[in-house]
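Homework help board

Subject: predicted structure for assignment chain

Our instructor gave us this sequence and asked us to write out the predicted structure in token form, then describe one feature. I got the tokens but I'm not sure how to describe them. Can anyone check?
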Amino acid sequence: MVESIVVMFENIVLVVFFSYLFVATYLCSLSSGNRLRHKLLAAYLLVVVIDLSNIIFNDFYQTYPDLDMLRYNVSLFMGPTLYLYVKTAIYNDFTLKLKHLLHTIPYVIACLVMIPNFFSVDNASKQLWYDNFTAVAELTFIHFMTSIQFGLYLVAIYKHIIRYRKVVVENYSDADRLNKRWLTQLIFLFTLIYFIGLGRMYFRFSIYQNYELERLVQLFMVISALLSICCILWQALHKPELFNGVSSTITVTDELATSKDNSSVAKTPTIETEKYDAIVLRLRNYMEHNKPFLDPYLSVDTLAERINLPSSELSITINRKIGQHFFDFVNLYRINLAAEMLIKNEQPSKTVLEILHEVGFNSKSSFNTAFKKHLLMTPSQYRKLHS
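My token output:
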């Protein structure tokens, strides 16, 4: 059984290795779209390629053990490259800066740790390391450091994705910007690989060492890696531009409210209530008479400019005073107008598709989702009910 697992493992590694290498090469060759985003994803894939290369080029690395140890430590770049890629995917103004070199510190530490007892000794002594792999303190330290580091990067990635969603629902009305499910699924897949890797560590470094189970867990890891590249390819072929990024400078309502609470300008609750009541009245009048929601790409900034208000004041008014996200606030006006048009006698021939475009939606799926959310039925059911 062990031999069959090893053979299957090596075959899948071969497929993953060349698949990742091909996609990374393709991403580096792209001249359109967000080139930094493409290159950072390519960098992540190449890090995985280098990490897996010892299985394919085992004889080469045995001849050059120093290169093998540099390869072993390169997995410390998986977390940083994936993290920076996600930031380019959700923030359209993200750029690499000198401070991002700090992400290389763990790799430098790992290499420095290896100098006294590995890089500075002869090949015979290095071979003793390989023969006692799980008993070498330095390698155990690097392995645990890599796992902890990648886990922390995953937490940071999820925090940025959650913040991105808050920014979108509080500042934009187009559903396309909320289309982050593919990225969340991809990160979830990487998280699954991470936890499988923790299982592999358990069977390698704990008192319950088991080579067969470690190989089996490693097989699941490479299968998950193969699924991740299939996910990337599928999305690239069917939806080449999935992400409309947002500016990293946009502040969510919670952050705005905190900054206002900490400001030096003190106002009584009565004055604040009267102020926001007036803004709500002014906003609702404008929405009903001017119908800005017909613009499918309406944003808080655009609407604030039209009614001559600071965007921060408008955002707080909608999210705190009215109690809705901007996304839901605008969509409610669109749905109400669509509901009227669906049952008007003079417009019986208008299709649902025509109506959804007229009221400010740009896709049938987002219209149906919003309609069902607000009126608890589909547009077709609503029309049939009132016919």
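Reply (TA_rk): Your tokens look well-formed. For the description, you could write something like this. Confidence is low (pLDDT under 50) at residues 263-268. That's the kind of observation they're looking for.
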